[in-house]
Specification:
The protein is mostly beta strands. The protein has two helices and ten strands; from the N terminus they run ββββαββββαββ. β6 and β7 form a beta hairpin. The chain is globular. The N and C termini lie close together (10 Å). The model has no long low-confidence stretch (mean pLDDT 94).
């Protein structure tokens, strides 16, 4: 069982993560989002570790409050968050507003490998691999 702490007074649950690619790895901050089917990462992070649109395997579009936003899916070598890792892991790549203080969303595609409890008042997530 792993425990991840977050700021219980913040408007979003933000967690630290690490992503690996052909040119190394990079730390990032993700918003935990149980409404996101896939885990989303912004393109700038992927550029830094050696991925790009050429690595995408499917063009996608996300409908948001500001309209349709283009993106793509791809697999990354490894993603770690909440004390657990997933290899050869499929993500969705698309931009987020620059004003956001995070680089993506930790979605159900990652969370489904875990049993987890979000203890909002305590500011912690308790997780165990299934």
């Amino acid at each position: 069982m792993k425990i991840t702490r977050f700021d219980p007074n913040a408007s979003l649950i933000l967690v630290n993560a690490m992503i690996w690619g052909p040119r190394g790895h990079k730390g990032l901050t993700l918003a935990l989002d149980t409404a996101a089917t896939l885990t989303h990462i912004i393109p700038d992070v992927l550029d830094d570790i050696g991925y790009g649109p050429r690595d995408g395997d499917r063009v996608t579009s996300i409908t948001s409050a500001i309209g349709d936003e283009p993106g793509y899916t791809m697999k990354v070598a490894k993603l770690s968050a909440l004390g657990f890792s997933a290899t050869d892991f499929r993500i969705h790549v698309h931009d987020l507003p620059e004003s956001f203080a995070f680089q993506g969303l930790l979605g159900l595609s990652f969370l489904r490998q875990l049993n987890y409890e979000i203890r909002s008042a305590e500011g912690r997530i308790v997780a165990a691999r299934i």
